[in-house]
Specification:
Order of helices and strands: EHEHHEHEHEHEHEEEEEHHHEH
CATH topology of the largest domain: Dihydrodipicolinate Reductase, domain 2
Number of strands: 12
Shape: globular
Radius of gyration: 19 Å
Number of domains: 2
Structural class: alpha/beta
Number of helices: 11
CATH architecture of the largest domain: 2-Layer Sandwich
Oligomer: single chain
Distance between the termini: 50 Å
Length: 314
């Protein structure tokens, strides 16, 4: 059997380097890479290819289209997500979208429309399918047994904070109907999510003085449970879930795309709620033209942190 060829697009974060050995162990060939220069300087892609024994460095997305069976989009400027995905969608090539899938309702709608039209799209955060989350899912706690929960992480509210939203959707399942900003304490934003069936969950995300693990405290009618994820297993858990769909071994997505992007919509509703004084925001009521999270500004800050400007402080 011919091995499926993977193309990596945008090498901005640590994910491409972390995914390569796992994909190879799973039997895939990492055939080509393309870097758009959002974070790294000229020449980085060639060094990355040499370091990871990748045979081809593409000078355009169309080169990746010609050489890859599956595309992985890893860029940290989520405003480029639809632009990067479009050539692959038009060519019928399956696409993995790294987290956050997108940062505005408009881009999420475009991606969702492509999925409805038959494009093979999936991705997102590994926290939704971590071993710890799956162990909780196996308990099959009935909704009427649920009391409350708290989950969170540090670093920032969206690029990293999206992991907390994903973890909570994994724990309680899809069906997030609304978000409401509750407070801002210790540099973090506290947001209450409400499910369509009435269950509620508090999320705390944003910058802290030190690193915080991915965690969740869960309370039911009969027990309490604490989760702290093992980060060393996250990428494999995610790739084990998405690769059968991306490779065509199954035609069923691991999660329907409209439910996958419920995670980003919840974060957008949380931001909008804070901007509107803590008003509860229904996910269905987020305006399509809402600006959302600024991917270009985040990418610039990410680049400046990695490559501090000469003569200036980050």
């Amino acid at each position: 059997m011919t091995r499926k060829k993977i193309g990596l697009v945008d090498l901005d974060t640590s994910h491409p380097a972390s995914f390569v050995p796992i994909l190879r162990e799973m039997g895939y060939e990492v055939a080509t890479i393309f870097d758009g220069g959002t974070v790294h300087p000229a020449g980085y892609a060639e060094r990355f290819a040499h370091q990871h024994s990748i045979p081809h460095v593409a000078s355009s997305l169309q080169e990746v289209v010609q050489k890859a069976d599956i595309a992985f989009l890893h860029g940290c400027n989520w405003e480029l997500r639809t632009e990067r995905a479009r050539p692959f969608i038009e060519a019928g090539i399956p696409v993995f979208l790294d987290k956050p899938v997108a940062g505005s309702p408009e881009h999420l709608r475009i991606l969702a429309d492509w999925a409805k039209q038959g494009a093979v799209l999936t991705g997102g955060s590994a926290l939704r399918v971590s071993d710890e989350v799956k162990a909780w899912q196996a308990e099959a706690i009935p909704p009427d047994e649920w009391v409350y929960g708290l989950a969170g992480c540090a670093i920032d509210e969206f690029n990293y904070g999206i992991h907390a939203y994903a973890m909570v959707q994994g724990l309680l399942g899809p069906g997030i109907a609304a978000a409401q900003h509750k407070s801002s304490q210790g540099g973090q934003r506290q947001v209450e999510l409400t499910w369509a069936d009435g269950r509620r969950f508090l999320i705390s995300v944003g910058e802290t003085k030190g690193y915080l693990p991915f965690y969740a405290n869960l309370v039911t009618q009969t027990t309490t449970h604490y989760i702290r994820t093992d980060n060393s297993k996250l990428y494999r858990a995610l790739l084990n879930e998405v690769m059968p769909y991306l490779s065509g071994d199954t035609t069923e997505p691991p999660i329907p795309f409209d439910l996958l992007i419920e995670i980003e919509l919840a974060a957008l509703a949380a931001k909008l709620s804070e901007e509107q004084g803590g008003r509860r925001i229904e996910l269905a009521d987020i305006p399509l033209n809402y600006a959302g999270y600024d991917g270009q500004a985040f990418a610039q800050s990410y680049r400046d942190a990695k490559y501090p400007p000469v003569g200036g402080a980050v």
